[in-house]
Design goal:
With 90 residues, the protein is mainly alpha-helical. It is built from three helices and no strands. This is DUF2533 family protein.
Length: 90
């Protein structure tokens, strides 16, 4: 195996690891968002802290330019989304 081939393989493996980490974090983020939405729909208190902790980790990965950034979520964003859902079902 040539040095170039080793370098390409190492680069490819690093990119694959970044993508795999992104997918795992993004799945976790979506789960936390769904939990916040469910709590809000039931009129219970909720936090966006876990969502934004994962978002921060995703955005750190995104600095490598391979995976996309995600927006931070606010309590108002969740409330507005739930309100839109409620308006659609009315």
């Amino acid at each position: 195996m040539t040095e170039v081939h080793r370098a390409i393989t190492a680069h490819s493996q690093k990119q694959h690891a970044l993508v795999r980490a992104f997918v795992e974090l993004n799945t976790k983020r979506e789960t936390y968002i769904e939990e916040a939405i469910a709590l809000c729909q039931r009129g219970e208190s909720f936090s966006v802290q876990k969502i934004n902790e994962v978002t921060k980790q995703i955005n750190e990965l995104a600095k490598n330019g391979i995976v996309p950034q995600r927006k931070y979520v606010t309590v108002d964003m969740v409330k507005e989304y739930v309100q839109k859902l409620n308006n659609k079902s009315s």
